[in-house]
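In this supplementary section we document a worked example of the pipeline. Step one takes a protein sequence of length 184 as its only input; no multiple sequence alignment statistics are reported here. Step two produces a three-dimensional model, which step three serialises into structure tokens for compact storage. The input and output of this example are shown verbatim.
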Amino acid sequence: MSILIEMGATLTPERTAARLCELSSDARAAVLLDAAGALAGSSGVAPEHAEGLAELTRELFHTVDRATRNWDADPAEQVEVQLPGGAAFASRTPRWTLAVVARRGALASLMLYDLRAVLGELEGGPPIRRATAAEAGADDADEKLRAAVKRIDTAASKGVIHRNAAARRKSRLMAKVARTSAEG
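The serialised model returned by step three reads:
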């Protein structure tokens, strides 16, 4: 469910996890950690379990850093973990780490984009604005869906993605549009 939110003030650390959950209909729970790894905010998870999710987030990045320490590259800024019941996504900047547990079928690219956008907003960037399907206009949504399906089909026909991957992406996109339309 996309939400149009007017934010009068700068996003606060305490509100950041809730902002991510409002922005993404696929988000189940989120936590924000500061540069020292301390829990700065949470949403969608009971307070007694928030610290556990924060610890898992710290462990996740620690494991990734340990696994990639011999690579000639910067530390990973984003992590995606697919699980049987859903997925976990995390993104970090030098000052903040934001992690989210998403439901099964969440689009990874959109979830990672939302993580980066919310972190950018927290660090003083522009607020994120999304219109619902009703505000954007149902006709416009249909046109955009047709255009997206056409681009996916083109990519599959040229061999950029496998035809099964194209079918899966179209199915997920159509399901997401249907959910958004039903909620809007």
